[in-house]
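Subgroup meeting minutes
Present: P.N., E.W., G.H.
Scribe: E.W.

1. P.N. recapped why we're keeping a running log of single-chain structure predictions: easier to compare across weeks, and new members can see raw inputs and outputs side by side.
2. G.H. added today's entry (154 aa).
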Amino acid sequence: MPQLKSQPVLATILRAGLSIHNGLLRIFDRGENCFISAYRKYLEGGKFDIEFEYMASPSLDNKIVILSDPMLASGKSMEIGYHALFSKGTPKHVHLVSVIASKQGVEYVTENITRHNVTLWLGAVDNDMTPHSYIVPGLGDAGDLAYGEKIDSK
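Output recorded in log:
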């Protein structure tokens, strides 16, 4: 049976990414873990920014990293998560993993993640997004579906 020379670091964007992270841990059960906290900060007019808040990670120098987020909608949280990785070292290779992506999200990531040694793994690509940057038809908000609704801090 083929075996990996080294286990990857499994990085995920909280909280929605926890469900896919647990699945990856079943395969890469000796991998290290990295957690990135990012969220949508809503602005006037339905627009939003992605805010990076916190990251817990081992050193990533010369390691293979699998960065997962189940939905690649606008691509902004994946970009922020990707760039956050480099605060913990320079990975040898980064695999970006999403179950469903929007065409716009794939284009955004392709244009804005320009470092070398990046692979994009996608289960499916849908053509459209809503004005609130949810994939159509997509799965809705993966975090809300997997872990219950968010508590509104307003």
